[in-house]
Amino acid sequence: MPAPDYTRATFLLSVAELDQLPADEGIEVAIIGRSNAGKSSVLNQLTQNAKLARVSKTPGRTQHINLFGLDDQRRLADLPGYGYAKVPLAVKQRWQQLLSNYLSERQCLRGLLMVMDIRHPLKPFDLEMLAWAAESQLAIHILLNKADKLTQQFAAKSLRDVKAALATTPGEVSVQTFSASKGSGAKALRDKLAEWFDICTE
Ligand SMILES: Nc1nc2c(ncn2[C@@H]2O[C@H](COP(=O)(O)OP(=O)(O)OP(=O)(O)O)[C@@H](O)[C@H]2O)c(=O)[nH]1
Ligand SMILES: [Mg+2]
Of 35, 45, 120, 202, which one has the greatest count of Cβ atoms within 10 A? Predict the structure, then answer.
């Protein structure tokens, strides 16, 4: 299958219940991570479309699963952020339930792009998610985002530290630095997605 033209990604729908999702077929890659880590910004960087996913300075903005179509077989899912405490408990519980149901039930889910703020990686929720993904045999690719906030030297150190911390983690885990603002790391991200979207590069 040829690589999708990410710039042609279109918003499909926003769901608050799993049964509103499109048919569970083709390949889906979900973007996951703590609130405010930059999930929506990563999606916009990948698609070169600043207006595609809503970016917000207010954490906890994405409370639904927002689906974006690349072609009729491949989709990206922008998931609600986890770990943000300042929303009413009932709202938080509802969206964490949605998240966990999606992750455990969605058969077409091929991998998780886990976005972390490079200055605050591997928080407790991230570690829980990593452990869960390993148990579920789901691949994870970590983006240490907002690398533009650090000097190259500190960004490289953070990458080394995270790799070292993950050395004994079971499962398929890879990690890279990224900047949704500057676009650094975009090639490595595309290469990983090509693998997941089953793209023949010959
Ligand atoms: N400097 C810098 N800022 C970034 C980067 N990526 C995202 N941001 C900023 O971080 C804030 C949060 O970005 P979002 O993309 O909305 O984060 P999110 O993870 O989707 O947040 P929720 O939907 O609330 O879970 C915004 O102010 C972005 O402009 C980056 O690579 N560099
Ligand atoms: Mg978002």
Answer: 45
Q: Is residue 46 part of a domain?
A: yes
Nearest CA to ligand 1 atom 6: 38
Where b means 16+ CB within 10 Å and e means fewer, 60-95 reads bbbbbbbbbbbeeebbbbbbbbbbbeeeeeeebeeb
Query: Average pLDDT in the 4-26 region?
Result: 92
Considering every ligand atom, which ligand is closest to the CA of 60? 1
Q: Kindly give the number of the ligand 1 atom that is closest to the alpha carbon of 56.
A: 16
Query: What pLDDT does 47 receive?
Result: 95
Full domain range(s) for residue 69: 6-196
Give the model confidence (pLDDT) of 173-186 as tens digits. 999 999 999 999 99
**8 Å CB contact between 19 and 13:** no
Among candidate residues 6, 22, 4, 193, the one with its CA nearest the CA of residue 107: 22
- The whole model's pTM is what? 0.93
Contacts of 106 (CB under 8 A, 6+ apart): 21, 24, 28, 30
CATH code, domain with 139: 3.40.50.300
Pocket of ligand 1 (CB under 6 A): 33, 35-41, 55-57, 59-62, 81, 145-146, 148-149, 179-181
Neighbours of 7 (CB within 10 A): 10
pLDDT at 61: 57
